[in-house]
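Before a computer can learn anything about folding, someone has to put a protein's shape into writing. The three-dimensional part falls to structure tokens, numbers that each stand for a local backbone shape. The protein below has been through that process, and both of its lines are reproduced in full.
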Amino acid sequence: MDKIVILTGAGLSAESGLGTFRDEGGLWAQHRIEDVATPEGFARDPALVHRFYNARRAQAQEAQPNAAHEALARLQSDFDGEVILVTQNVDGLHEKAGSKTIHMHGELARALCSTCEHRWDADLEMDGDTRCPACGQTTARPDVVWFGEIPYHMDEIADHLATCTLFAAIGTSGQVYPAAGFVQEAQYAGAETVELNLNATDISRAFATHHIGPASQIVPEWVDSLLA
């Protein structure tokens, strides 16, 4: 049976109004990554990190899936084979569109206790007084993977890459590892590879096929071709 593994990144959600940390003028442009997206930054100023992620959480709650999210949900539903969707995104838009997704970088809608590692659905706003419902400690943080931390579900993802027949990367910059190395893992397994992005990336040469353009245009067209 054919198996498609799809990696999605921030470029997929850009047309839903959610910017990346490379965009000018957005939330990320107002802060240093070291201050709001590292364990060290959280240890220095947890209040700042909570405010930053409260703002991101509010944005994600208001955002709606675009045509690319909806096309991938349709592919997962209608493809005569297996479609594994792995995302670097934490915004939950794949789920809003109806997809089942492996979140390698966590989810904005979830909270994590630094003391006991319990996870739960986060309130829209968190702060230093937010208590873990399991242990009662005020050591709650966003359940997102920060720079310097190990992404989630890596063994599961590796198993899928080793058994896929087609690997696609959509809207991802190719600058963040280990995700940037997924294309090589899929190639070693003999899979076809395709990149769909607004522009060429640092790892474009690793892919056999390319589709360049806005995700809301090229992803539905690509899905249509697979389902034809």
